[in-house]
């Protein structure tokens, strides 16, 4: 009986997302990626810039140069496999340019939280975070609504707070820009409560 | 407006043509530079967002995207053809 319980717990742990499983890029890496896509350097990523970058990503991934992406040309994570199956509309086991671009536009639309038809730096930072911590599209409109964002940020806070002390330190938020950390840290004590974390992002997005 | 002498007109035409060629070359160079930057940026972008398919955001966005249900088949096909053509033009511009 004891062995069976331990085996069940072990199996459960295998499927639970571990907090340490987050492999978020550093703030510097996120900024560098943003600047690389923002080709006209106006501080915003337009849909056109996003699409051009998507072409470049497709081209770089299409190793056999057949204008299709097959599963072997993409990283083999579980998330990727799931999304691949959704994106592969005609179920031919590969992604055409059109299928890939539909997916990339869906990501852009979701990440454009303030509906400004472009991605600000804070929206891009959130996209990078939520790509790993998740978001639930409760009303199924393909957009991250403020209420959905709040729920997603609460969930992200739990995953970022590695020592479970109820605060996020700069080390636990290494992905976050210094400006955003400062904006979140309302009482200037150098660490973020869950309320400060959520409030700071909503403030940055003008969603308050 | 003063009438233009025929000799001046003869001189103006090649000048205009040269200016147009120069302008076109500048625009082309600018386009190529932007495209080259886009391709060169791939490793930098991949460093921050290694999942081309957008991780959990991509999965959720696509899973609930209303686009396929709302768009007619013809519109979808046209869009797909446009994407394919735009990509091939972009790809061609990388070689030149």
Topology:
The complex is a heterodimer of chains A (208) and B (96).
Chain A: H1 2-15, H2 27-37, E1 45-46, H3 47-61, E2 68-69, H4 78-87, E3 95-96, H5 97-111, E4 118-119, H6 121-133, H7 146-160, H8 178-184, H9 194-204
Antiparallel strand pairs in A: 1-4, 2-3
Helix pairs in contact in A: 2-6, 3-5, 7-9, 8-9
Chain B: H1 6-40, H2 42-48, H3 55-63, H4 67-70, H5 73-95
Describe this protein's structure.
The complex is a heterodimer of chains A (208) and B (96). Chain A is mainly α and 208 residues long. Chain A contains 9 helices and 4 strands. Chain A has 2 domains: 45-111, EF-hand (Recoverin, domain 1), CATH 1.10.238.10; 116-208, Recoverin, domain 1. In chain A, 53% of the residues lie in helices and 4% in strands. In chain A, the strands form 2 sheets. A two-stranded antiparallel ribbon of chain A has the order 1-4. Chain A has a two-stranded antiparallel sheet with strand order 2-3. In chain A, helix 2 (27-37) packs across helix 6. Chain A is globular. The model of chain A is unreliable at 5-20 (pLDDT under 50). By secondary structure, chain B is mainly α. Chain B has 2 domains: 10-65, no CATH class; 69-96. Helix content of chain B is 81%, strand content 0%. Chain B is built from 5 helices and no strands. Chain B has helices at residues 6-40, 42-48, 55-63, 67-70, 73-95. Residues 22-31 of chain B have low confidence and may be disordered.
């Amino acid at each position: 009986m004891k062995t069976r319980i331990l085996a069940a717990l072990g199996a459960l742990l295998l499927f639970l997302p571990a907090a340490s499983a987050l492999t978020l890029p550093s703030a510097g890496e996120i900024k560098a990626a943003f600047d690389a896509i923002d080709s006209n350097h106006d501080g915003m990523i337009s849909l056109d810039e996003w699409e051009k970058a998507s072409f470049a990503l497709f081209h770089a991934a299409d190793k056999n140069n057949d204008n299709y992406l097959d599963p072997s040309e993409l990283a083999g994570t579980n998330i990727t496999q799931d999304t691949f199956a959704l994106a592969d509309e005609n179920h031919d086991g590969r992604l055409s340019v059109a299928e890939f671009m539909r997916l990339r536009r869906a990501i852009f639309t979701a990440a454009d939280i303030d509906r400004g038809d472009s991605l600000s730096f804070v929206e891009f930072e959130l996209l990078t975070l939520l790509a790993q911590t998740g978001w639930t599209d409760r009303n199924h409109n393909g957009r991250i609504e403020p209420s959905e964002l709040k729920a997603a940020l609460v969930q992200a806070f739990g995953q970022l707070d590695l020592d479970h002390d109820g605060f996020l330190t700069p080390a636990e938020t290494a992905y976050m820009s210094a400006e955003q950390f400062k904006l979140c840290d309302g009482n200037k004590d150098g660490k973020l409560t869950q309320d400060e974390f959520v409030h700071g992002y909503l403030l940055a997005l003008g969603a308050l | 407006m003063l009438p233009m002498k025929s000799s001046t007109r003869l001189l103006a035409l090649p000048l205009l043509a040269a200016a147009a060629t120069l302008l076109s070359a500048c625009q082309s160079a600018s386009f190529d530079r932007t495209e080259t930057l886009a391709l060169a940026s791939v490793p930098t972008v991949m460093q921050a967002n290694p999942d081309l398919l957008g991780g959990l955001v991509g999965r959720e966005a696509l899973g609930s995207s209303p686009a396929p249900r709302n768009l007619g088949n013809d519109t979808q096909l046209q869009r797909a053809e446009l994407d394919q053509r735009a990509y091939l033009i972009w790809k061609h511009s990388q070689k030149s």
